[in-house]
Structure prediction request, 106 residues.
Amino acid sequence: MYTYGQPRTCDQALADAYDEAFAGRMFRFVNNNDVVPRVPPEPVYRHVAVEKYIDADGNLEEQATLFGRVGDSLKGHTADVFSPGTDAVRDHSMKNYLACLSRAAG
Prediction:
């Protein structure tokens, strides 16, 4: 299963069951500041465990640290001086996900 910019859809029990049932077969991609994976709010709603993170430069990160993501988020939000703050919506575009993943595939 592959998802791109998916919102939170599980409670903790469902996320745990899903992680167990689909271990090694679930890939959830999040593009930098994409707003959709941040809703609805935690802790009521959860994501499944595995996340593949695409940074502000379009690089696929297997394991992004909290510190690294904060800096990367700022980089993404300030990348377009003529449209500050629009990165959260722009990053949800499937076209952007595909472009990043095509670059990562080589």
Notes: The first helix runs from residue 12 to 21.
